[in-house]
Design goal:
Keywords: Acyltransferase, Transferase. This is GNAT family N-acetyltransferase. GO terms for molecular function: acyltransferase activity. The chain has 164 residues and is α+β, with helices and mostly antiparallel strands. It has one domain: Gcn5-related N-acetyltransferase (GNAT) (Aminopeptidase), CATH 3.40.630. Helix content is 27%, strand content 24%. It has 5 helices and 7 strands, in the order βαααβββαβαββ. It has a 7-stranded mixed sheet, with helices on both faces. The protein is globular, with a radius of gyration of 15 Å. The mean pLDDT is 94. The structure holds coenzyme A.
Length: 164
């Protein structure tokens, strides 16, 4: 993995630049509607109230390299949820996404969590392949999961035992 990145807890001031990454980093997935959908999924509140279980990576010049937004379920203390993850496309394939997830798995385990969940759009083939490599089980397509026309696939990974 790229050794010159700094990983830290996000702060409220990071919100705007994470929003700015949601278009280019997703490669225009689902066009303008997709960009709006993603922006609405990342409101400021995540940078106010969810930061201890979230992570951000920067290059030495301070530019954003990657981020993860996650939390332990308020409903089920056995479950943690990764809401959003993104890695700068220039840095894909270097293990940065895996590193963010492994950090999150460690935090979750320390909180007594037993499984991690997340969802993605069925069209996001990279996300589906990535989560499969990280040991997640994937559901069928769940029609209208997040509202009319907002289909999702759901991922679940047990934290019970270490995996390759
Ligand atoms: C999905 C994403 C976070 C992966 O980040 P990354 O840093 O490139 O992933 P890593 O290098 O850590 O890869 C981890 C594993 O997943 C695999 N993987 C990653 N992207 C893949 C792809 N597009 N196709 C197939 N496998 C992939 C890698 O080969 C690697 O496997 P290995 O460790 O067993 O060799 C990144 O592609 C991204 O930001 N995409 C756009 C945003 C997005 O779709 N986010 C997820 C939905 S919210």
């Amino acid at each position: 993995m790229s050794a010159d990145l700094t990983f830290r807890q996000p702060i409220e001031d990071d919100h705007a630049r994470v929003l700015a990454a949601l278009g280019p980093w997703w490669g225009g997935l689902k066009g303008e509607a997709g960009a709006k959908e993603r922006a609405l999924l990342v409101p400021r509140l995540y940078f106010q109230h969810f930061t201890p279980t979230s992570r951000l990576a920067e290059r030495p010049d301070g530019t954003l390299a990657a981020f993860l937004i996650g939390f332990v379920s308020q409903t089920d203390p056995d479950t943690a949820y990764i809401h959003f993850v993104g890695v700068d496309p220039q840095l894909h394939g270097q293990g940065i996404g895996r590193s963010l997830y492994e950090w999150f798995f460690g935090q979750a385990r320390e909180s007594g969590v037993r499984k991690v969940k997340c969802v993605t759009s069925p069209q996001n083939a990279a996300s589906r392949a990535y989560h499969a490599r990280l040991g997640f089980e994937v559901s069928e397509v769940l029609p209208d999961y997040d509202g009319p026309g907002l289909d999702r696939v759901a991922f679940t990974r047990s934290l019970a035992a270490e995996r390759a």
